[in-house]
Amino acid sequence: MALAGLLLGMIAGLTCAAIGFFALDLSFWICLLLYSFVGALSTLSITVLTHLLRSRTSYWQSPPSQETATS
Fold this sequence. Notes:
By secondary structure, the protein is mainly alpha-helical. The protein has a domain at about 1-5 and about 15-55. The protein has three helices and no strands.
């Protein structure tokens, strides 16, 4: 979960900074700050969202009763 959040956060930050630098003609330092903030916010958001989605599934809350071959 954390690795997916980290990779997607880096991609989102880089995309946002590149758009700001090339299309909106922002300065390099503003784009560097933009990359940091958007990347960190995306990483935290994706990590929290995936954690909440995984913890709310019915399988994790009440595991199904599975009978094995020996029982």
